[in-house]
Design goal:
alpha+beta; four-stranded antiparallel sheet
Length: 165
Amino acid sequence: MRVDPGSTLIELVIAIALMGMVVTGVLGAMATSVTMSRMSDDQAKVEAVLGNAADRLTGYAYIPCPPGGSDGFGGYLPIVQAAAAAVGWDDSTVAISDIRFWSPGVSVTSGSWVASNGLSGGECNEAASLTTSRTLQKVTITVSSPEGLVRSLEVVKSNVFPRQQ
């Protein structure tokens, strides 16, 4: 009968090192998978909030002359910020970064978006029969996730009244 001499220390160290490399690779892959899943979830939430905010803004009443006000965006800001609640985020994650007004040029193709619509006083009411150039607003909505992902979307609002005969 032959006696098993056992394993040497070098064989044991090599076996442990190889197992360590395999475990490290598996753990690294799992960590990457978790990180990618979190990023994907974050991106999906940002897109959902952005879409919800755009829908809310589109369905909200048109404001002919958005006043500066406390939010600086004529009452539109609280409407779009309410979209953050759908994913449990703070209102500050949704903002309106800009409002522009269409200013037509000499031809249809030469117009541009400007910072002011040029209306004032009595011209700024729902009953005014406004022209298309004065009733187009481009509102830029920006959503920032708590993890730092930022996306923006531009929504064009209009309130073109049919001509009264």
